[in-house]
Amino acid sequence: MGGGPKPFGVDAERVPDMLIRLSLLGLNFVGFHIFSGSQNLNATAIQEMHTKTFQLGIRLAEHAPSPVRLFNIGGGFGVPYFPGDQTLNIAAIGENLQHLMPEVKRQFPDVRIAIELGRYMVAEAGVYVCRVLERKVSRGQTFLVTDGGLHHHLAASGNFGQVIRKNYPVIIGNKVRGADREIVSVVGPLCTPLDLLADQMQMAKASVDDLVVILQSGAYGLTASPTAFLSHPIPIEVLV
Ligand SMILES: Cc1ncc(COP(=O)(O)O)c(C=O)c1O
Q: What is the distance of C-alpha 58 from the center of its chain?
């Protein structure tokens, strides 16, 4: 989301002029908000991003009309979704921030630092559940057709931010320990091949009425999905 031509925010090289204009207009300068990207599982890359974010803020503050009181360094901490993904080393990120803080405080004595995490806070707290309506075999491949799909959970279908589609963690919720296993694809009821919730995954053998559960669904779930597409019912959201 950062670097190169972007539809978001203000290009860093235009900020000095913007700060002058802001003060000419008598606007109240509060501070900076720098957001670089999302779903990062590499602690070293995040450390580097934080270091560069502060360096950029310090450089830009030379043009600021008043002291920086708020510095929002963005979000982007990732969560493991796919096989091989490792949990983020949050301690390493904390240590780096601790190491950076004395200089940041020296440059901006009254600053409040904010981190605006999205998925790191909530992704693992949410599950998406849909029901198997039908088992279908087509040319040797088994599909579980469900009452859920991309209209409820676009991200799990692979159409929200994935370059190469990978399966979210998907289980049969009422047969978690089922010994009878099979390779299946889980699909929704929409008339598009994009409506795919799991592509040839191994899971417990499911029957009609069993529950397909998609883990790591608390972020970028329902609100990031085209719920009106093909007019199927919207799922119920329950806060436990
Ligand atoms: C400005 C801004 N802040 C915070 C976030 C949350 O990001 P994440 O869920 O990667 O922490 C986003 C996501 O795109 C964003 O655009």
A: 28
